[in-house]
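Input sequence (172 aa), recorded before submission:
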Amino acid sequence: VGYCIMTNSNDGGTVWAIGRAIRAYLTRNGSAPQLPPAVTLPPSLAHEYNGWYEPINPRNEAYRFLSRMFEMVKLEVGDTGFTLGGLGEKRSFVATGQRLFRSKPEPVATAVFIADRSVGTLIQVGGDTFRRLPGGVAQLQWALCVSPIALGITSFLFALVWIPRRLWGGLR
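Predicted structure, token format:
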């Protein structure tokens, strides 16, 4: 069963509301699928996958530098899943297999720890793929981003003190 929505409006909210109404109608007699039970993860997985990750498949290549800074996430593996947090809210995932995970309310796996290590340690969450950063690189990137801003602010504060002193003769 499929459906098509066509509209001559640029209002994405209207299209979303129509799609939601159609999905509600198509699934009105269905029951919610059972959530699979949580699986206990081996402790070695935490050692392999804990850390900071950067996105490697940005939607727009022109903004890759911004996505490297603002879409970095920290992954923390627990006994039965992992949490993923960055600048936004933390998301929790429950293990459905040794490397497959689902978001807590979802019945199907939406995240995976990729076993192939040819390009580094990778995870995929939804449509986004992330590569693990070596230790300290995430903090170094933030420090290199924030330090020019901090230096600019201190130069401005320096000018607020020394320019009046120079003008009113307090500086010899």
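Checked by second reader. The first strand starts at residue 51 and ends at 55.
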